[in-house]
Amino acid sequence: MLAFGALLVVVAAGVGEVFSSPLQVPLKAPAIKPRKLHGRFLQVTDMHPDLFYVVRSSQETACHRKKSKKKKVEKSGYYGTPFSECDSPLRLTNFTLDYLDKKWTSEVDFVIWTGDNARHDNDPKLPRTPDEIYSLNRAVTAKMKQVFTSKGIPVVPSLGNNDVWPHVKCLL
Question: Where are the domains of the chain?
Answer without folding.
Answer: 2-157
